[in-house]
Specification:
- By secondary structure, the chain is mainly α.
- The chain has 22 helices and no strands.
- Helix 19 packs antiparallel against helix 20.
- The chain is globular.
Length: about 425
């Protein structure tokens, strides 16, 4: 009797049972790693290949049967909701600019921003930084990180469900490393990271300890600013900070953690002021037509046309040398400074970050002087323009909101007096 029961159990756990439910995938794929991983996962006996991939084998072969987060959300609705509410939930759109006007675009890229058969965008959040990349670079160098928005497999693996995979901080390192967001390196070489490497949890925090507490998929909890570093509104920032301090308090005195985070806040705001100073210098040069190539002579920006772009949507091709310096200051050095500060890493905060910000700012000031002198306009400054284009420059600054009504009127009066002398 026991043998009969065992035989029946084996029957319902083998490919025969799968085939009886209308799936013949295992007849060809039984030895595939995907199948081995599936059978070793908690999905074994609960899901068939077709439940997630569909039954159109030709579409699967063409790569048109992508298993997106919505598929996982059929069973994991809470996790999908948390994920969609987090910064990960807009990762794809912040990393991909619309390619519809590119002559050699890959039509499959339409699916990044549009539901099949619809011209309406899924999201209006796009950074467009990679508009000039090849499709291959876009896939490998951009979207293999940014696909986290719509691919649970980005962190979990495609067919595995072992939680130890996503509890390892190295799973975050694939994307959260490098010159523009070195969270993993900053954490790994901080006191938290070295303690984690030595003694592990619960006495040292991993990325997930602070950013995915209790298994939440909302990785934005406790953050008081987006990746740009610009602070959230006061009410939201205060609520987020209290959420983070509740976590810190499990290991530290709340007052100690609050002081440390406040210092990091100060470093971030000081860094943003230096970035703003550099941005003002470059905008002044653009107002005077001194950038080479000028924005009007470049490829049209996919979102902003032929205007100077110095924010998160800034491209890094076909720009002037001084803009290249600014890109490295803003995107790399500034990010290392305040991300290092929030991850309690002195070397990233100072030498990799703050020192580079200030050195690059010196280079930007020197390059600005060179450009002005090249056209025989020595002595020009951002605050007190002296040349024939002074009124035009002031007007542009006023239109951007850099000058108040009173400041604009006073500076305009001063320039007119100088011109008429």
């Amino acid at each position: 009797m026991i043998r009969i029961l065992c035989f029946l159990f084996v029957l319902i756990s083998t490919p025969v049972f799968a085939e009886e439910r209308g799936s013949d995938c295992l007849s060809c794929h039984q030895q595939d790693s995907a199948n081995r991983q599936l059978l070793a996962s908690s999905h074994a006996g609960k899901l068939l290949c077709a439940d997630c991939h569909g039954e159109d084998h030709a579409a699967i072969d063409r790569g048109e049967s992508f298993v997106g987060a919505d598929v996982c959300g059929r069973c994991h609705a809470l996790q999908l909701k948390e994920h969609r509410n987090s910064r990960h939930g807009m990762a794809l759109h912040t990393g991909w600019g619309c390619t519809r006007n590119e002559p050699e675009r890959d039509k499959q890229e339409c699916a990044f921003c549009h539901q099949q058969g619809s011209s309406l965008p899924i999201s209006t959040v796009q950074c467009a930084r990679f508009i000039k990349q090849s499709s291959e670079m876009g896939q490998i160098g951009c979207n293999r990180c940014h696909m986290v928005e719509n691919s649970c497999g980005s962190c979990h693996g495609n067919h595995m469900t072992d939680a130890k995979i996503v509890r390892d901080p190295a799973v975050c390192a694939k994307c959260h490393m490098g010159p523009d967001h070195p969270q993993w390196e900053a954490w790994q070489t901080s006191q938290h990271g070295t303690l984690y490497g030595s003694i592990g949890e619960p006495d040292a925090p991993a990325c997930q300890t602070c950013h995915m507490p209790l298994g939440t998929h909302d990785v934005s909890g406790g953050l008081t600013a987006p990746p740009s570093g610009k602070p959230y509104a006061q009410q939201k920032a205060a609520a987020q900070r209290n959420e983070m301090l509740d976590l810190c308090q499990s290991c530290h005195a709340r007052s100690f953690a609050a002081r440390d985070l406040q210092m990091a806040d100060a470093v971030r705001l000081q860094t943003l002021k230096l970035v703003a100073e550099a941005r003002t210098i470059i905008r002044d040069l653009d107002d005077r037509g001194l950038l080479d190539p000028q924005p009007k002579n470049r490829i049209e920006h996919p979102q902003r046309g032929q205007e100077l772009v110095l924010d998160g949507a800034m491209l890094y091709e076909d720009i002037s040398h001084i803009e290249s310096l600014f890109f490295r200051l803003n995107k790399y050095a500034a990010a290392k400074t305040f991300k290092g500060a929030y991850h309690q890493n002195p070397a990233y905060t100072h030498w990799y970050g703050n020192a580079e910000v200030k050195l690059l700012l010196n280079d930007i000031k020197g390059e600005a002087r060179r450009l002005r002198e090249r056209v025989s306009q020595p002595g020009m400054t951002v605050d007190e323009p002296q040349d024939e284009k002074a009124l035009e420059v002031l007007q542009k600054r006023y239109q951007r909101g850099e000058l108040s009504d009173a400041d604009y009127a006073e500076k305009k009066r001063q320039v007119l007096e100088q011109i008429l002398q």
